[in-house]
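Appendix C reproduces, verbatim, an entry submitted by the partner laboratory led by Prof. M.T., so that reviewers can inspect both the input and the predicted structure.
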Amino acid sequence: MSEKQYTYAVARIRAKELSLLNDAFLEQLITAKSVSEDMALLSEKGWKGRDNADKQDPLDVLSYEEEKTYDTVLSMVDDPHAFDAFLLKKDFHNLKAAVKETYAGKAFADIYVEGGTIEPERIKEAAKSGDFSMLPDSMKEAGKKALDTLLHYHDGQLCDIIIDRACLDEIKKASDKNKNDLIKRYGELTVALADIKTAVRGSKAKKDIAFFKEALAECDTLDVTRLGEAASLGTDDIYDYLENTKYKDAVEALKKSFFAFEKWCNDALMDSIRPEKAHPFTIGPLAAYILARESEISSVRMILTGKENDLPDQMIRERISRTYV
């Protein structure tokens, strides 16, 4: 797209940003008495789901809001693959679901998600037939390896590791190929933070160095060999390693709780996209809008889940990330 076209698209996005949820509104949702009260508040903001009815299924409303976001932004750009780095996680989620469904020999309800770069039915058919050649190379290799692992070793965790690692590798490749700096930063941050999560979880589960060599994806801001070695020794060694990286501020959150670290990760992502508010001539503000919407949808989902499970307001509040606006 030309600079003029981006200027027009960014102007439209700036108008859309006015309807993004802010911290004060999320606080309203947190302090509401019930899920139905939250849904009423969201309805006033235009979150009404596909049939625009007054009473809505929360899951339908959230998935429709995400669908609308991509439909809106993709309508503004010439390249339908401009935001593939954001969508790959859905493809690999569906690959994992298809492999496990095939292994179980029966269909499961509501395990596939729409909106990826590949139709879920195509992924499902590849796994069911055992012919992954109809999928991109990265998914073909990961799908076959994961299914073989389940069939021969019945190891669901190793299956997850194989597919999750392939997903991270592809996000990194897709973001590196993109010309936009924000999307490059997104890919790097996504992989690095996922590696830290895996390292901490694996360390607490007493996993050995072989596990970390298989699970950790390469990135530019972490030495995953050193991270894996530290994780095989213990969480304190992970913290010591991270203190000498750009993620040293995450250590305090990790020591507090995993929920605190999840919040730190989401806040770090929001911090990384805020500079795009000053870039009117690139695709960056459009990418930032997508990520801001995904973050607010995630926060709303967390609030609704907390309400459904009668979690105290303060516990919910501690898990909610800062908003983009």
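DSSP finds 16 helices and no strands in the chain. Additional entries are available on request from the coordinating office.
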